[in-house]
Amino acid sequence: MVPDVSAPMQIKNGELIMDADRAVLNAYDASGVEEALVLKEADGGAVIVVSVGPAKAAETLRKALAMGADSAVHITTEGVEGAGEFDSDSYAKILAAYYGEQEYDTLFFGKQSQDTDAGLTGSMVAELLGIPYVSNAVGITREADGRFLVKRQGDSGQEIVDAGTGCLITCSNDMNEPRIPKLKGIMASKKKPLEVLTLSDLGVNAADVQPKTQITAYVEIPARQAGQKFSEGAAEDAGRVAELLEQNDLLS
Amino acid sequence: MIFIHLLTIQGGAIKRASLEVLARGRALADALNNNGQEVELHTVVCSPEVADWDEAKWAAELGAYGVDRVWSATDESFKEHNNQALLAAVQTAHAQATDQAAKPSLVAMASTEGVKDILGALSARLGASVVADVSEFGVVAEGDGLHLTAIRPVMASKAQTQVQTTAKHVMVSVRSGSYGILEEARGQEGGTPNHEPIKIELIKIEQGDSKLQTQIREIITAAADIIDLNEAETIVAAGRGVKDETAKALIAELAQCLNAGIGASRALTEAGIYDPSVQIGQTGKVVAPQLYIAVGISGAIQHVAGITNTKVIVAVNKDADAPIFEVANYGIVGDLYEVLPAFIAEIKRLKG
Ligand SMILES: Cc1cc2nc3c(=O)[nH]c(=O)nc-3n(C[C@H](O)[C@H](O)[C@H](O)COP(=O)(O)OP(=O)(O)OC[C@H]3O[C@@H](n4cnc5c(N)ncnc54)[C@H](O)[C@@H]3O)c2cc1C
Ligand SMILES: Nc1ncnc2c1ncn2[C@@H]1O[C@H](COP(=O)(O)O)[C@@H](O)[C@H]1O
Question: Does A73 touch chain B (CB under 8 A)?
């Protein structure tokens, strides 16, 4: 669950104010759900979606159920001290406490959250659980023996990685086009199981998952000013801009 | 305090993004040293490409940055990216550099894909507080640890946050283009005067828990002659408006006469028209060149998020209302098939 980054927003006195308090399914997680559904359609199994967050998180879980996930787990942070300021470290510890008690073929995470772009939680959870991981996946296939073959985007090319099973994979949205839930799926999602757990159900103390990093203020990004626009005809415009670049010493 | 930087090496050379972080480390160390604190600048290298570098070579490459120590894990396993091997190496170097974590440390790295892959896991392993992908950072001693402050863009670069953390061990990854490299370090032979010779320590990595290992089966490398977008002073970027071979050839020609790297919007990397490694934006690379020429790119927030630190943006788009014009210093409203040939001819003429 992330706030909709395309919605209008303002910064007032160091705080971020979203005009509409709208939460959406993180695009990178939507790709994870899509990939899980494709694998399930091929090989069977079950897709379970998990979110840690306030009551609103349940809405995004419903969205994933409407896409076709089988069941959902909402680890609620309603009323938990400091939950409004939780960071990736906090969520990673909570998720590791949960997954430590579960069985799974693989865990899909988003490569990053659309609002913070932190990109930390996935590999933190893998480290805490002591399982292999691959990040920034742009494609996933499964071998006959159940091993996950992950194509990841690296610095200068793509790597095909054998991640085995019981691994964690963080997904890029370049992997697929997440399906849009159909009416039938939306209706069906209302009847699918959504389990609500509290931190104490997981044996987690709020004191142990307090954030390690604090946001002290939101500040404006020095806005880029729209500069000069030319529309006098291709040759003339191109000539003017080339000249301006030359004057600014940019034609190296 | 120990400032530790994981050096990014590619094609036998130290990446510019790495030198930017080291320059920042040098500036921080100088400021703190003047304040009576002792800061040592260390780098960790994990690359077989530098296995035969000797002290003189390291001094030539890093001398001007006042690096005190190089922890070198030049194991063959670093030929390919391998997150568990990297984690093990940095952990080993960190333990030795900090005297088994007794001394406070700041671990700073360039925000490359390789670093993004290990950042979270490394912070968990070192018990460090981490702030990812910052555009500025600073540090002061506090108690027996460090107080780190940083600035990082959020909300698809529509806002930024000031972030702080206090801990014995703190970590940051730094966006490329956030700091200049030390000018005098360029092409200079030998270290700075009054600097002790760099100490080189070889570290052996324990391959660790084999059940954590993943294995690379195959690498699909992008064409070798692609100019690295994080190093390029000029980038020509193509968007969906670049539909056919003619347009692609114009992009290539423009890039060639500006000695520019070629980037693309997601619309084109997704369509397989350009290599995925050149995607610019929130999901792709964040770049900060001197000049960015966006051709047939509408300017979606997720794309613009990757170019906000660019000095000058030029946009070519036939739609006068395209959002890219709101961030462009110079906008040309027109059809790229007409604008680019004229632009290329004019640039060639000006450059003589
Ligand atoms: C979570 C998330 C992450 C994303 N990450 C990225 C990312 O990292 N990078 C990225 O680029 N996108 C990213 N996107 C996608 C982004 O939202 C846009 O869909 C994408 O950037 C559009 O690419 P485009 O501008 O090339 O195409 P379009 O939006 O289709 O624009 C094409 C433009 O070309 C112009 N044009 C067409 N023909 C001509 C011509 N002959 N001459 C001149 N102009 C012409 C048109 O007027 C139009 O403005 C992301 C989206 C999401 C949801
Ligand atoms: N509160 C949470 N609940 C469930 N998953 C989360 C949560 N926070 C982070 N994640 C996962 O971690 C990914 C990256 O997180 P981040 O470190 O915030 O960029 C997300 O795409 C999710 O898959």
Answer: no
Cβ distance of A213 and B129 shorter than 8 Å: yes
Interval A82-125: pLDDT, tens: 999 999 999 999 999 999 999 999 999 999 999 999 999 999 99
Residue A27's contacts (CB-CB under 8 Å, 6 or more residues apart) are A110, A114, A173, A178
Classify burial at A69, counting beta carbons within 10 Å of its beta carbon; exposed 0-12, middle 13-18, buried 19 or more: buried
At B10 the pLDDT is 87
Q: Does B227 touch chain A (CB under 8 A)?
A: no
For A12, nearest residue in chain B (alpha carbons):
B159
What is the arithmetic mean of pLDDT over A139-144? 95
Q: Which of B279, B277, B232 is nearest to B256 (CA)?
A: B232
Q: Is there a contact between A228 and B329 if contact means CB atoms under 8 Å apart?
A: yes
Of A122, A162, A238, the CB nearest to B332: A238
For all residues of chain B together, what is the average pLDDT? 91
Query: What does the alpha-carbon distance between residue B217 and residue A164 come to, in Å, rounded to a whole number?
Result: 12
In tens, the pLDDT along A28-63 reads: 999 999 999 999 999 999 999 999 999 999 999 999
Q: Would the CB atoms of B342 and A158 count as touching at under 8 Å?
A: no
Q: How far apart are the first and last CA of chain A?
A: 45
B119-173 per-position pLDDT tens digit: 999 999 999 999 999 999 999 999 999 999 999 999 999 999 999 999 999 999 9
Under an 8 A CB cutoff, do A5 and B342 touch? no
Are both B182 and B267 inside the same structural domain? Answer: no
Q: Is some CB atom of chain A closer than 8 A to the CB atom of B256?
A: no
pTM for this one?
0.95
CA distance A32 to A47: 10
* Residue B172 token pair: 């940051």
Q: Rounded to whole angstroms, what are the CA distances from A220 to A16, A18, A53, B161?
A: 10, 14, 27, 9
Note the CATH number of domain A2-209: 3.40.50.620
Q: Does A195 touch chain B (CB under 8 A)?
A: no
Lowest mean pLDDT among A175-184, B104-113, B194-203: B194-203
- Taking residues A128-156, what's their average pLDDT? 95
Its domain, for residue B334, covers 234-351
**Tokens found for residue A111:** 């490569």
CA-CA distances (angstroms) from residue B296 to A225, B157, B266, B337?
20, 21, 12, 10
Q: What is the ipTM of this complex?
A: 0.95
DSSP state of A51: E
- Please name the residue that has the structure tokens 């001819």: B345
From ligand 2's centre to the CA of A32, what distance in Å? Answer: 12
pLDDT in tens, B250-266: 999 999 999 999 999 99
Number of domains forming the structure of chain B: 2
Flag whether residue B145 sits within 8 Å of chain A, measured between CB atoms: no
Tell me the residues of chain A between 148 and 187 that have a Cβ less than 8 Å away from chain B. 149, 153-164, 167, 172-174
Q: To the nearest whole percent, how much of chain A has pLDDT over 90?
A: 87
Domain contains B220 = no
Tell me, yes or no, whether B179 and B270 share the same domain. no
Nearest CA to CA, how far is B194 from chain A (Å)?
36
Domain boundaries, chain A: 2-209
